[in-house]
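Per reviewer request, we include the raw input and output of the structure prediction for the construct analysed in the revised manuscript.
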Amino acid sequence: MENAQPVRAPFYALTQIESVKSRLKLPSVLLLLPLMALAVTVGCDEPDPVIETSDGSTMILIPAGVFQRGGKEEEVAEAPDRNFLTYVAERPVSDITLNAFYIDKYEVTNAQYREFLDDAGMTNTRWDHAYQPEQVHHGPRHITDDQKGDDQPAAGINWYDAYAYCAWADKRLPTEAEWEYAARGGTYRKYPWGEHPPYHDGVYFANFRPEHNADADGHKVTAPVGTYPDGVSPFGVMDMAGNAEEWVHDWYDHSYYQSSKNSSNPTGPAAGVQRVIKGGSYGTPRWEVRIAQRFKGKPHNKGPRIGFRCALDP
């Protein structure tokens, strides 16, 4: 069998077309059609960098790669208790390898979540997790009227609600590692935008709780998604610091970053009592909207600060 020459093939084909054209006296466009079809075929295996999904979300392709998961001790030096187990659980920093995946550009909004409830119902949906509590419906709880705007992130959501929504939309929850990679990119950084705090040079990069005034960043509670464009991640994902905290797929284990260091496609412990929550919220201080921050919560609990976004395999 002759050796394939993928780089030379298009140029070789063009010279052959010219030869056939001169002998048969055919229009050039007819002879170019097979080559055009080949070009389309060659590129069709690449996933689109941005897609729109049935629930109205924009999703961004996060390419396969290696990134540094975790946090550094010096990042919480200003925290009241920098030795708190939550901070220790971020360590060590290690190289994690991930396959490509899509992630929602924005947190799921109230308008999107209401559409899910209208279509699926409040209870016993066919998208429910196997352990969905029978006595807990999918409606949000513990949120105030100023959190219910169409473009604000859906909050007051438990893990089972987030799971059911993503399944309804033919998606899934991101793993904790996927979430961190989408927020951080391939180069280590403390926040999605870099190293400086969420208020810098007169600009707010996230919706968090400033020390001097809870609404100094413009919003006392959740802001409409995408309100802080300067806080965008290296991949173009919005609001991964502050606004609403976000459920992810994984069970929580404070030692998991140690036991799974330098691994590929980690999906969290096989079982647990609490699920991981990422990103911080409008109610957390600046050191708790860092990428590495690992909150946790019982999966049936609905909190006024907790929302989510979905992921999808290419």
